[in-house]
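Follow-up to my earlier ticket, as requested here are the two runs.
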Amino acid sequence: MILDSRLAGSLCICLALLVGCSSGTKGPKLAPADGTVTYKGNPLAGATVMFVPAKGPVAMGITDVSGKFRLATGTIRGAVVGPVTVSITAMSASEDTSGMDAISKRPQSKEEADAYMKKASEMQAAMSSGRAAEVMPKSLIPEKYGKAETSGLQFEIKANGPNHFEIALTD
């Protein structure tokens, strides 16, 4: 009986320590954030929006057909509290999709593997000879928005919100 009470007491102490140790969260404080991106007054669908804090992990979201996005930092909804710079990229679908399927999925047959190798070789040759623009998708918005350092987009993520951002891009 004494052994059982010691064991039960030890288990209670271990459980208390585990609960106490696991209740705190590590890392920067995050706050929910969302917004809308427009380009020349129209919603920008399929754009990647990144909020880059001075210190801490980047938050990212993808715009829907209405240009709306929600930010997440890794798998956690929200963005690091504090000042951020923003980058936005939006690429067009390739006009020439011949061979693009070959590099967008794992080959399932010898023919697909051959097509993959052929397209990869063509892309590598184009990039090596300075013709990257021929194989890379075209940006739907000015290139300056693709880098946080050049976009000119700066915002503040507030701990207690609201953190809704209307981002209107122009040329």
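Run two:
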Amino acid sequence: MEVYLELFISYLKIRAVQAVLCIIASIMAAKLADWIIGRILSRLVSRTSSTIDDKIIQILHRPIYYSILLMGLGISVRLFPLPGIISFVIIGLFKTTAIIFWSFALFQSFIYLINWYSHPNQQSNIIKVHTLPIFDNVGKIIIFMVAGYFILVSWGVNVTGWLASTTIVAM
């Protein structure tokens, strides 16, 4: 029995085996998060009278799943004995994919919240039919700019100049 245990431990020291185990663990963790959000959290928010929380959970479900999966895959890429540039590109693609998933989710959530908040039965003084387009456009621009910023940062681009010029334009 000790021989098998030592053999098992020696296999766990191999980086490729660690990477494969990390891939399996990330898939299991993503599935667990999927189950928790799909079953438990959705059941909790369905008890409320408002439908906004149901829609937000539905929108955020997919990015949470893929973020957990991509984080595990990123860790496994670092464990694989790959050349540095290949590892950098793969991890950059994972980060970019996660940012795009979250950007689309924020975009959908924003559109849903703006439309819900501007609905005539809401007691809002800020968002009315004539102010809806300005809030809609400004929100979309901000989400797009923040997504672009994080994509550039994920690839290691120095964004100091871009950030300074954006600040000057905003003034």
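The only thing I checked on run two: The chain has a mean pLDDT of 85. Let me know what else you need.
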